[in-house]
Amino acid sequence: MLLWLGFxxxxxxxxxxxxxxxxxxxxxxxxxxxxxxxxxRDQLAEIEAERARGLIGEAEAEAARxxxxxxxxxxxxxxxxxxTAAATGDLRTLAMVVAAALPVLAxxxxxxxxxxxxxxxxxxxxxxxxxxxxxxxxxxxxxEERLRAFPEDGxxxxxxxPVYLRLARYSDAADAFQRALRLMGESPERLAGLAEAHVLxxxxxxxEVARKAYERLRVLTPExxxxxxxxxxxxxxxxxxxxAVSVYAQLLTEGEADAPWRPMVEARWRTARTKLGLxxxxxxxxxADAGPQPEAKSEPSSEAKSEPKSAGMAPALAREQAExxxxxxxxxxxxVIEDMVAGLDQxxxxxxxxxxxxxxxxxxxxxxxxRDDALAALERARAAMAGEAPSLEALGTLARSLGLAx
Amino acid sequence: MIVELxxxxxxxxxxxxxxxxxxxMWGARVGDDRLMGVAEPAALAQLxxxxxxxxxxxxxxxxxxxSVANVYAxxxxxxxxxxxxxxxxxxxxxxxxxxxLILALFGAAVAAFGTNLPATLRANVLxxxxxxxxxxxxxxxxxxxxxxxxxxxxxxxxxxxPILQDPALAFHPPFLYAGYVGFSMAYSFAIAGLIEGRxxxxxxxxxxxxxxxxxxxxxxxxxxxxxWAYYELGWGGWWFWDPVENxxxxxxxxxxxxxxxxxxxxxxxxxxxxxxxxxxxxxxxSLMGAFLVRSGVLSSVHAFAVDPKRGVFxxxxxxxxxxxxxxxxxxxxxxxxxxxxxxPLSREGGxxxxxxxxxxATGTVLVGTLYPLALESINGAKISVGAPYFNATFxxxxxxxxxxxxxxxxxxxxxxxVYAALQRLMVAGLLAIxxxxxxxxxxERGPWLAPFAIALGVWVIAGAISExxxxxxxxxxxxxxxxxxxxxxxxxxxxTAIAHAGVGVMVIGxxxxxxxxxxxxxxxxxxxxxxxxGYEINFKGVAPSDGPNYREVIGLMQVSQGGSRIVELAPSxxxxxxxxxxxxxxxxxxxxxGDLYVVLGDEAGDGAWSVRLYFNPLVRLIWIGAVIMFIGxxxxxxxxxxxxxxxxxxxxxxxxxxxxx
Lengths: 406, 661
Known about the structure:
The complex is a heterodimer of chains A (406) and B (661).
Chain A: H1 2-23, H2 35-52, H3 58-81, H4 92-113, H5 136-149, H6 154-166, H7 170-184, H8 188-201, H9 208-220, H10 226-237, H11 241-254, H12 262-276, H13 294-297, H14 300-313, H15 319-327, H16 330-350, H17 355-367, H18 371-384, H19 389-402
Chain B: H1 2-30, H2 33-36, H3 39-62, H4 69-74, H5 81-86, H6 92-113, H7 119-143, H8 167-196, H9 201-232, H10 243-268, H11 272-295, H12 308-332, H13 347-379, H14 387-404, H15 407-410, H16 418-424, H17 426-442, H18 450-471, H19 479-488, H20 491-516, E1 518-524, E2 529-532, E3 535-546, E4 550-561, E5 564-569, E6 572-577, E7 580-585, E8 587-591, E9 594-605, E10 608-617, H21 620-638
Antiparallel strand pairs in B: 1-10, 2-3, 3-4, 4-5, 4-6, 6-7, 8-9, 9-10
Helix pairs in contact in B: 1-3, 1-7, 3-6, 6-7, 6-8, 7-8, 7-12, 8-9, 8-10, 8-11, 8-12, 9-10, 9-21, 10-11, 10-13, 11-12, 13-14, 17-18, 18-20, 20-21
């Protein structure tokens, strides 16, 4: 209502101002005779003053006076020639039209573009909107305001950092986690958050900062799978696919069968294998139900050494076999594996038309450190596959990646 | 509610413009002063309404009312107050509102102070002024409404482009627009003069000061833009011949020409027809500048509006006002009476030379700016015309202009004596030659033309001083008498001399920084030291810091010279939060001989950072020169005296005193 009152006041004011000259009685004289003449008269006075101050000489002043006099005469002639034309009659009708049309048009135009029913909503006075989630934005703004005043408040950064992460403000999140780490000390949550923020900030690339954070987490929380996964991604991104594949495989074996991350890791595993030139193989299945794994608790460095052997084999084994092998003591496990490799070797002697088998065999020998056997197997595979270009190419790639190429 | 009140005021202003356009012109035609009398209250009402509208939008920005689409798109609740205010015109819609507000301000000035104007001229001028405002208000209401609302209301705004969050840029658009729009006065007067078929003394009396005011604003506006580009964009350059820069530079060149021809017109009633044409062209170039920037036909830093609908609309405005103005000119100009006659070698002749050179220069800039656009629309090739073109075309035109500049004020009106002027400039010439020798002696590298360009600047400054000294007739009076005469000199004479000296100062700055800039790009580890232009720069490392709406990494640079510490520079890389965008802030050390300019680049790993170092000799003189020009203009503007050019007699009286020189 107040708004419309405002409109009315504005309109009335404008109409009144515009109508006043229209409704005034005709001025007695029209144009003040010769506004130009006035200018010239001023100019004459000016020249006189300049002459008196000694700025222009007598001769120049005289010349200027003559010049102005000439202009004055011309303008006087013209003023006579243009007497005012016939006057228009009464302007009352015109005034009425303006007074009526202006408000109507104004309202019409305004209604087509404006939003009279929408109130202004200054940021500061906006309370929580009923029905909506009570403003995360506002809460964040409050914390931010406080942190601007007290930038050393570690708890504040601790609180806001995960919120930033949720709000997809990754750069802010990374910064906040970093500050929280500095002010409040190291904690797995902060490290994980920092790393995650950095990874998300750089579109999935595990940056140096993130990698370091995950490595630290690996030490702090060795039972966590996530740091291992991201470190594997980092190796993959560095071009160390084998390392990545083996860790993925481990994760898939150790993780629970219905873990939400499983499809993602499986996809990663497949892609990395493809890049290595490995043929498709059944995805390693979870054996988390099989109880605690001894090597998961072991020290990371020794694990890293022992891992590739079992990991290199694991994908090719059927579930029961894998389970059985994993539960065996170290020596027995090696024995079983070697038996299996020998079995595979024998099978391929009987039937050489199995690229996947050959690849697995060559890898196995290579992983077990039996380089001569690996080279021999490669020779035999090439002979068996003679004439099949794609297969030979795959074997070549494999040989190169295992360092068997001469 | 305040927002909607502003919106309504905008609509009302549009309708008032309609009345102001139609009734006064009709009144002038039939000779009814009641109809003509509508012009003044209408112009004042228009200004009042637009102030309401502008204040309403500003209020919405200040309180961060994100229910206004424009505020949502260009502001953020954490933005500092000054940038919330400057954000009003830091975007397309708001800047258009500022444009019409300034237009109304000039119109209201005519209404308020124009009582000594002939009634018909005043009515016609205000009517033409209203037609320009009408076109832009229609443009705003139809395509770029700053009061459009949002429902539901977003929680937070998107923020202002961080590179625009800067003090110089906060005030750059208002000055620029005051300049652009100020030329609308000259245009309105020109059109009104053409409609009436005559231009009298009052016409010229009005056009010159308003043109001067517009020119002053434009000078400062362009200088601010250039200064901003210098320290904010971090390229160490101050002028890039960017189409948007050219868009503001062309009206400036044409406006400078107009300023000088308006002097001739006021003092001598000569060059009337030419002045009218220049007035139309100058404002046309201002409109074209608005078109180039606003339509988004250019893609550069400034082009923040990309919307073909708007482009077509502005093109239509352009066609109506430029095409209409020129058509009217072609039709009516022959009926205008030509004014005073003059010899080729005279003050007038000098100003004609000035006009010829300046308009040609405008033409070359115009070609350089539009050629890429034309080419792109013909065969789709995207080229950019840059410094080499302008150095080859624009600079050679400036050389004769600067050479001739000191002569102008020393020549008499109507018929002048070049030989006498040359004698008076003897000292200035010697100084210029001295400057060449000195520069060659002091500087061992750089282009061989540079010393000559420096000499040109010295020549212009010394010439301006020579003019003052000649005016007070130094040489035939004692000190007290000279001081008395200096006091008595009209301010306009000082204004001319100071503005001309400002040009000289600027020329020296431009030459020095273009010819002798040094530049180094390197990677520095903390603790490392490098040298540039006699400075040792020690990189101490980086540190994080927080601003109100950004975070930054500051590089600490200890600058020393000859072992003594001078200053610590802190160039930084900023990451703004809304919108998320990175900017770099240069660290600049200002010294007498030039600026040390340090930019922090990217991290190069292992704690090393890429760093760019520049030394820009005498670069400040460019902006100091612009400020001096502004001061000169202000002095001249403050001189409210009427001007008459007093010609000398052909034959001097025999008792004339001996020549001053």
